[in-house]
């Protein structure tokens, strides 16, 4: 059995995964928890570790048969090849990715402490600030300079953008 790489259509990794699994293929889609702004609030959503790619396991007997069922699966764009040879992935890499994706990790934050941001709206709109931390109340603490003195204020994360 070998692992191969499947290239999916944009943002259809989950669809391709479900459809391939329904056809009886063993597949793997490594996911990463990431913070996103959703309706003005920070939420944690699972995202593919490799956008538009997933892995499929096939035995050498299936290698000779047509790739058409895989290529014509909804959500799948094509199989990744090098010339005419399908791209093989080592079992060690898949095992390492599985260990990483099953390990309990914190979500990748949208903003990191010390990062420069700009306030988009409110009384401080247009000012640059330095992101400090989330205050746990769906707000973010930032440092702005008022009267040549750093001041800490809280704003909605949706009011910030990276510079």
Structure description:
The protein has helices at 13-22, 60-63, 68-71, 91-102; strands at 2-8, 26-28, 31-38, 41-48, 53-58, 76-79, 81-82, 85-86, 88-89, 116-119, 128-134, 140-146, 149-155, 160-162. The chain is an alpha+beta fold and 163 residues long. The protein folds into two domains: 2-102, NusG, N-terminal domain (Alpha-Beta Plaits, 2-Layer Sandwich); 116-162, SH3 type barrels (Roll). Strands 1, 2, 5, 6 and 9 form a five-stranded antiparallel beta sheet that branches. Strands 13-12-11-10-14 form a five-stranded antiparallel beta sheet, with no helix packed on it. A two-stranded antiparallel sheet has the order 3-4. Strand 10 and strand 11 (128-134) form a beta hairpin. The chain is elongated, with a radius of gyration of 22 Å. The relative contact order is 0.18. The mean pLDDT is 85.
The helix tally amounts to 4
Provide mean pLDDT, rounded. Answer: 85
Shape: elongated
Structurally, the number of domains stands at: 2
CATH topology group of the largest domain: Alpha-Beta Plaits
CATH architecture of the largest domain: 2-Layer Sandwich
- Helix fraction, binned, reads 10-25%
Give the tally of β-strands: 14
CATH superfamily of the largest domain: NusG, N-terminal domain
Oligomer: single chain
Which segments are poorly predicted (pLDDT under 50) over 5 or more consecutive residues?
none
Distance between the termini: 47 Å
Tell me the major beta sheet.
5 strands, antiparallel
- The whole-angstrom Rg is 22 Å
What is the name of the CATH class of the largest domain?
A: Alpha Beta
């Amino acid at each position: 059995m070998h692992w191969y790489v499947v290239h999916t259509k944009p943002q259809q990794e989950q669809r391709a995964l479900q459809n391939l699994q329904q056809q009886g293929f063993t597949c793997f889609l490594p996911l990463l928890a990431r913070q996103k702004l959703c309706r003005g609030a920070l939420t944690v959503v699972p995202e593919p570790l490799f956008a538009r790619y997933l892995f499929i396991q096939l035995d050498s007997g299936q290698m000779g048969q047509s790739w058409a069922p895989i290529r014509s699966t909804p959500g799948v764009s094509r199989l990744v090849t090098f010339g005419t040879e399908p791209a093989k992935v080592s079992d060690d890499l898949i095992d390492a990715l599985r260990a990483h994706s099953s390990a309990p990790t914190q979500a990748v934050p949208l903003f990191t402490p010390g990062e420069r941001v700009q306030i988009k709206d409110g009384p401080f709109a247009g000012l640059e600030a330095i992101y400090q931390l989330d205050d746990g109340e769906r707000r973010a603490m930032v440092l702005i300079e008022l009267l040549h003195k750093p001041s800490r204020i809280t704003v909605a994360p949706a009011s910030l953008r990276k510079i």
